Amino acid sequence: MVLIWIFTVLICLLQGTEPITLSDAIRIIGARLSSGSAEAVDLSKETTILLEIRLPRVLLAGLVGGTLAMVGVTLQALLRNPLADPFVIGISSGTALGVVCFLLTGLNVSFWGMTASPLFGFLGGLMTLFFLYSLSRVHGRIFVQTLLLGGVILNAMLSAVIMFTTYMVDANKVMGIVYWLMGNLGSLDFKALAAVAFYTVVGMAVLLKSARGLNLLALGDETAVTLGLDAERTKRLAFFASALLIGAVVSVSGLISFVGIMIPHVLRILIGPDHRLLLPASVLGGGIFLVAADTIARSLISPTEIPVGVITALCGGPFFLFLLWRGRTRYSAS
Predict the structure, then answer these.
(1) Quick one: DSSP state of residue 301?
(2) 172 within domain boundaries
(3) Does the residue 280 lie in any domain?
(4) 13, 103, 106, 184 — which has fewest CB within 10 A?
(5) What is the spatial distance between Cα 295 and Cα 300, in angstroms, rounded to a whole number?
(6) % pLDDT > 90, the chain
(7) In terms of residue numbers, what domain contains 291?
(8) Over the stretch 2-48, which tens digit does the pLDDT of each residue have?
(9) Assigned domain for 67 exists
(10) What value, to the nearest 5°, has the Cα angle with vertex 83 and ends 79 and 89?
(11) Within-domain flag for 39
(12) Could you tell me the pTM of the whole model?
């Protein structure tokens, strides 16, 4: 999967409105690595496209796709529901509402080379998560059915608030907000990308450390406790890390759906349900998928760009229907 990820990134770097040949790409990268300065004048345009526009966008797509898939795997394990997803339980909508509120304030606050929108997104996702946690927690235990149902309802309410807020703002800001909400990966430079990567690496490390606990939780809370796992602590830690990850990526990419549902399903078929393998594989698989989807989005009707969220939804909808059809066929056969 690492080799496939590298191959996908290299191919997608060459594709776009202005195709770049492999030989030119090698010359550009070689010159940059050797001198650290701009290349020859005849390659200045290709240099800008390859290193300043496409490379950070492709790396961001890999980071966002891997994060969404990893959080999808985690939530499905915690909720013991194969349809659980950060969008389904409302974390993404809470994050999006936080970012929209920041955009509407017009504040010019920045840190680490980027605006404070990831912080507002993280706070929105975290507040949503704490609300769901409080709603579903009874006598120190989390009832996953209550959390899942409450998340679906809260997601609908937050989506309505986002639409109302967007409707009430100035018309000049509406298109930017709507385009962002549909998924947009072309707005970061390397400095901002590094800041987002810091958030996600911390969250991913926490989830990878929880892999054994997620395996035990799949057996049920009572069984996990008898095997020595502090089930409630594992759930709290995983939920908090999920909010950190979603807050970081949704604040810069917008709402990109179905990645957290499709990739975990495919990988469970390929490598099995062991989260010690499934979590790192989901980072690679989600990255491969979203890098390819974003390349299609910016190349399909060039020079116009399609929001990448449209491409993932067009892939995810038929995939979801296929899962329903397969389940119906198996039920009929039994």
Answers:
(1) B
(2) yes
(3) yes
(4) 106
(5) 8
(6) 24
(7) 63-333
(8) 999 999 999 999 988 787 888 888 887 777 777 654 444 445 777 88
(9) yes
(10) 65
(11) no
(12) 0.88
pLDDT of residue 210: 92
Enter the tokens of residue 320.
């979801």
Tokens found for residue 39: 């290349």
Chain segment 127-181, per-residue pLDDT in tens? 887 788 788 777 767 677 777 788 888 888 998 998 888 887 777 777 777 877 8
CA 72 from chain centre, in angstroms, equals 9
* Per-chain mean pLDDT for the chain: 82
Going from the C-alpha of 105 to that of each of 42, 99, 173, the distances in angstroms are 44, 10, 11
Among candidate residues 203, 201, 242, 259, the one with its CA nearest the CA of residue 65: 259
* HSE-CB of 50 using CA atoms within 13 angstroms: 26
**For residue 288, what is the domain's CATH number?**
1.10.3470.10
Between the alpha carbon of residue 300 and those of residues 6, 48, 146, 150, 233, the distances in Å are 22, 21, 42, 38, 46
Contact (CB, 8 A) for 97 and 158: yes
Domain count, the chain: 1
